[in-house]
Amino acid sequence: MQLFEAFLNVLAPAPMFFIFLGVLLGIVVGAIPGLGGAMLIALLLPVTFYMDSVLALMLLVSIYVGSVSGGLITAIMLKMPGTPSAVMTVLDGYPMAQQGRAGRALSLGIMASFVGGIISWLFLALLSPPLADFALKFGPYELFTLVLMALVLIATIAEGTLVKGLLIALFGMAVAMVGPDASSGVMRLTFGIDSFTGGFSLLPVLLGVFVISQIIEDVLKKEVPIQQQGGQLTEFMPSSGDVKKHGPNAVRSSLIGTWIGVLPGVGSAIAAIVAYTTTKSFSKHPETFGTGEEAGIVAAEASNNASVNGALIPLITLGIPGSVIDAILIGALVIHNLQPGPLLFTNSPEIAYGVIAAALVANFMMAALMFAGVRPIARIATISRAYLFPTIIVCCVIGVYSLSNSMSSVWVMIAFGVLGFAFRRGGFPVGPFVLGYILAPLAEKELRSGLMLYDGSLMPLVTRPISLFFIVLTLVLALWPLVQARMKARG
Amino acid sequence: MSFLTPEHRGETLCLLLLAATGITLLVGAASLPEPMFDPMGPAGLPRWIGWLLLAFVALRLVVFARDVRAASRADKARNMLGAGERGIPRAEITDRPQIARLLIAAAITLAYVAILAAKVVPFVWVTMLFITVLGAAMIEYTPRKLITVAAIGVVMSLALTYVFTDVLSVVLPQ
């Protein structure tokens, strides 16, 4: 019933406008390599601060949906995945474009993205409310072990090694420790520096690590002229035969994408890789993959889009981010004084159900906009960085300044930009940093509440079944790469 | 040390930074008061994170040293093939013009923020100048591109000032 009401609200002009705007912006930044949804959402956080919370969240979720989809256009037409999630789409999409079948590749990609979005949305809509109800039964130790699992999982999956992932997540947690202790009010790690007394705010840290560091990285790269493939877009509209031919693959890949999206910190790029590999192993002609195989595009695109709604499930039910963008969305909830987690359904149902409804509408808009705007979007993706980056930097400066009315936040943003760049150059993934930074206060709060509740005993961590389950899962996740390496070494 | 790739050097720097963070956390935690309301107190988690950082840095250093040794052996083998094969693969080196461009861009950006912080020039003017100068520093000069960059500077500074001050009622630094 509440979902139905949310749909009625979403279909009003203002939400429809913001969903349209979000999807459009998302598709455009998703198509431009080096930008991406995380960057745009972080960049727009200060703007959304002045908006109604429901509309703000709808805008951000729509950007998320659009950004994961937009990458396929440039992956197919320009051989450059706009986002990491489109990396598998290049393998078969670009060869199809070279064969003069760009229209067919785009059409399959867009339809698969749409199917992935719809199937995963069903899970989002059906699972989220009961899961949030169930999560309300979680005590502090259950939540603490859940956060622990999320941190270990993202460190395991992130680029680079497990140790690098854990190190950078711990660094994120360390940054979150600066400022007043939430329980006692004691100033921590400020070392007498006045500008540290409020701690490092979310926005300068996010914009520094995601936007400024990415700009530094991109300025260092040589800009190469881009060749567009495709010619006339023939076979652009899908046919009824495609349902029979690609339906099972699309459904299977959507299920894979949804499941991988649910896992904290894994993200859409891994979803695309797993679905692509699975489809290839199921195929009677695996040798055709990488040469322009339609099934490859369907698998990659259905799964990466499905992972978006999958990742929203732990976000709105448990307050645990399923991906880096979800971590930024948690930041958006915090900026709007909303409590991420199961209480969102109880305290702010209009937000929880609004997000769910917006995710579905955004999927329809994504398909329509992608079919309508392939050519102009591909052209926008070739705009020189010299025209984009200065304006992006100005937006970052205004955004950070506007929330604190202080230029010291701008310096903090620049400092984190340099740090983020240094970590990228050192082969450290920045995703775990953000998760560590956002989840550390939650982990600390739950752990300390648990200790108070159980008279300082840590035993309930292993005697309570749910927290024990999360601990076992965490250990398995942490040890699995080592086991895998040993198995590989033994041949 | 020509066998050290830029990533090796970058990782060394990051590990040093992480170790320093670990030590800072331990030093900072030592000066915090004893637990008052809960058994862990305000120093508990910073201390754990500090020790974990140091432990993982040590672990990573062991693996890192092994990688560097392997790279050194490979470098020696390449030396035997000929001087032209030595060192970092060409693709991994960032060209000097790119580094120079980054340094110029960084200097322009820092100057922009410093001027805004000093509040001596109105936001719209300094932003117009910043977008134009930074854009010009990043393009390969042609009159047409310069005009485009200048036009973007004018349009974006006016548009951003209007949107943030008049539409969103944000106080801009000026």
Task: Outline the fold blueprint.
The complex is a heterodimer of chains A (491) and B (174).
Chain A: H1 2-10, H2 13-31, H3 37-48, H4 53-77, H5 87-98, H6 102-135, H7 140-157, H8 162-177, E1 179-180, E2 187-188, H9 202-220, H10 241-262, H11 268-282, H12 294-318, H13 324-335, H14 343-347, H15 349-380, H16 385-404, H17 407-425, H18 431-453, H19 460-463, H20 465-489
Antiparallel strand pairs in A: 1-2
Chain B: H1 6-30, H2 44-81, H3 96-118, H4 123-138, H5 143-167
Helix pairs in contact in B: 1-2, 3-4, 4-5
Give an account of the 3D structure:
The complex is a heterodimer of chains A (491) and B (174). Chain A has 491 residues and is mostly helical. Chain A has one domain (2-489). Chain A has 20 helices and two strands. Chain A has helices spanning 2-10, 13-31, 37-48, 53-77, 87-98, 102-135, 140-157, 162-177, 202-220, 241-262, 268-282, 294-318, 324-335, 343-347, 349-380, 385-404, 407-425, 431-453, 460-463, 465-489; strands at residues 179-180, 187-188. Chain A is globular, with a radius of gyration of 22 Å. With 174 residues, chain B is mostly helical. Chain B folds into two domains: 6-92; 96-167, no CATH class. Helix content of chain B is 73%, strand content 0%. Chain B contains five helices and no strands. The model of chain B is unreliable at 83-93 (pLDDT under 50). Classes of the chains: A mainly alpha (491), B mainly alpha (174). Chains A and B meet through helix 8, helix 9, helix 16, helix 17 and helix 18 of A and helix 1, helix 2, helix 3, helix 4 and helix 5 of B.
Counted beta strands of chain A: 2
The pLDDT mean of chain A sits at 84
The N- to C-terminal Cα distance of chain A equals 56 Å
Largest sheet of chain A: 2 strands, antiparallel
Give the overall form of chain A: globular
How many domains is the backbone of chain B divided into? Answer: 2
Structural class of chain B: mainly alpha
Unreliable segments of chain A (pLDDT under 50, ≥5 consecutive)? Answer: none
Strand order of the largest sheet of chain A: 1-2
Count of DSSP helices of chain B? 5
Order of helices and strands of chain B: HHHHH
